[in-house]
Amino acid sequence: MVGNYFRIAWRHIMANKTFSFISIFGLSLSVTVFLLITQYAIFELRFDRFHSRANCIYRVNAITYSDRQIVSNSALSSYSLKQTMDGRFPEIVNSVRLISTRSWFDCTLKYDEGSKAVIFNEHNLYYTDASVLSIFSLPLRYGNAQALAKPYTAVLSESVARRYFGNEYPIGKTLHLKGSFEESDYTVTGVIEDIPADSHIEADIFLSINSLEHNPYVDNFDAYTYIQISPSVNMEDFTDRFNALVSKYLPSDNKTFIKFSLQPITEIHLYSSLQDEMKPGGNAKSIYFLILVAFSILLIAWINYINLATAQSIARAKEVGIRKVSGATRGQLVNQFLAESVIINLLSATLAFLAVFFLSSFFYTLAGFTVSYDRFISAGIYDIALLTLIVFCFGVFAAGFYPARIISSYNPVLVLKGKFNGKNNTGLTLRKTLVVFQFTCAIGLTIAVLTFKQQFEFMQRQDLGIDIARTVIVKAPSLIDSSFADRLRNFKSSLATKSVISGVTTSSAIPGDKIEWTGNVRIDRNSRAQTSFVINVVDNDFISTYKLKLLSGRDFTVSDFPLKKFGDKTESVILNKAAIQLLGIATPEEAIGLEIYWGDDKCKVVGVIDDFHQQSLEIALQPILFTANSGPRLSLKFGEAVNTNNLKASIAVIQKEWRSFFPDDPFDYFFLEDHYATQYADDAQIANIFQLFCGIAIIISGLGLFGLSFFMVRQRMKEMGIRKILGASVVNLITILTTEFVWLIILASCLAVPLAYLGITQWLQHFAFHMDLTAWIFVCPVLLFMGIGFITIGFQTFKAANVNPVKILKHE
Asked: How does the protein's chain sit in the membrane according to the entry (predicted)?
């Protein structure tokens, strides 16, 4: 019996290829989108959950208060915090520190085999405790859990080990580290599997933290501190006791103190926006919004299937009547039509699953994500398969049951007497409601896409207030020794003589960087009122190289550089416009010669520059204090004559000079415009995804409109025949039928526009600088869908209106 249902269902599907294709195409497309988004959402939501103790691991974040105001909220805590808390809290099972070398300067590692030397700049290098291998789930390929117990030992990731040693056995190999505060040899004692992409910890190399015991700067270091807590601990109570006890051992005064928060490791990626994060996190709201969009597209497709199935119901009315007269029960008819739903949904789900499996990499590349097949696996192939099964079952019974019930309810007497016309006010109202709903979703999504695109373009075309074009950033040598300043000065002088170079400067932060160094500034040394500024160390060529606008005063000169130690004299500083406004200074001219205090060091303002966008336009303009010295980031400005044709030769000129002055350091460079653009990578990804989904929503909504218009035209064939006999033209008939659909689209627009306005207005508030909303952003999507409606309905009506009315009335 069941087999018979499916054989008949398959024959019907093959006999109605157009409707079958539209149904399968729409469903498979929407399910593919749903699975792709869900796959990405699973990846994002599972960040750091691969650790076996993930639910018990917390990061200790430090909140600094001054005069009861928060001046910093950082993911970093002090180096000494671990010693302070170890042994004092029985609830803490384990703890570990990670100290990033990026907070100083990049390091180089060199493996000298004798016949050849391998050297690389390393950015993801951390000093850490031996407990890092026990608190986190980092499977060892070589070595054991005590690999970092001794000083000057190193644990590498597999990819780094291959980069230095190829296929050689790595244990016991020696790597020479050259950094800003250290030059030492490290012995490789362990190799771990590469840390998964769904980890907020981005580390390739771990060095024993015991190597820093005799480092004179160790007390100034900040660390990412993690603790493992017993599962049964009440975290709110423990956090209070933790702060109460730890605060006794930390330096503080009546004005400044630190409070700690304990953040679950599983919440860091999506729910943390603290200063000093290891790497940029995700956005939970964006993830949940994408999931909502995915469900909306899936719902639109199911609505289309319902409308297309009911559109066919009139043509199948006689079939239903004959079956009922022949003794078929309503339940048997429902089962028959559900069998068709099973086949269509099964084909759609299978095609969607295969599309996700084979096209994931293409989709993520199109969206702007860096992915591989491994990412699909990490997102959980079994989860995707389970979701496909759930979508299939829901599609069969939710989307298939209603059409089956409608079709099986036809009165066989009316059908066989030719008096059945398929009119059902309840069913028709529901179908129109469903079309209004799907067009509301589609119009709203289109408005959102236009807004995202316009805001993205707005940020890209704004004047940054700083010239970053034709600028190459070269990473300064890792070891800043006594000869560094002279070599760097000579290197700059040598480059200045090259015709391809128009400017050379150094700084601690470059445009596009988040300036991590902050300091409290006040006008009166004894005042309790102080303001947090970001600090950028620049040389005397920074302003001219980047073409910053000097509002008053002068640029730095070599004489402004500190003596042996910063603060040995009254230091010269330059402020930006936002900084003097924050200090309550009315004009740039009034700031010149003003003495201010950065911490306990007296400084004199020698210049004021106009504001510029250090970071993206999502970030408000920051108060910046510039102090004079040589920084670790070397900026080289190419002249106007340099273009894509001679760029390679120009880079070669710089590289040759580099090797003359810094032969032991790798030449590592990147273009500043590319670096600055990475700030908008997430926005570009969202824009690409929404454009893709907008196109899909338009296609699926068009299919739905096609189905409903087909249904309504078939219903009104007799009316059209009579009107045509009475003298109505084709244009009259098209106008009569399209008017009803136009009202449906207008109703959908009335719902979509205010909802979209509320959503995008709230979204734009996240940007410090954003576009102004204009009417065309709302009008264009409405006109677009009006056009789609006219074309779709007009095509159906035109075909029906050209049918001979005699033929219509004969059959009706």
From this structure: Multi-pass membrane protein
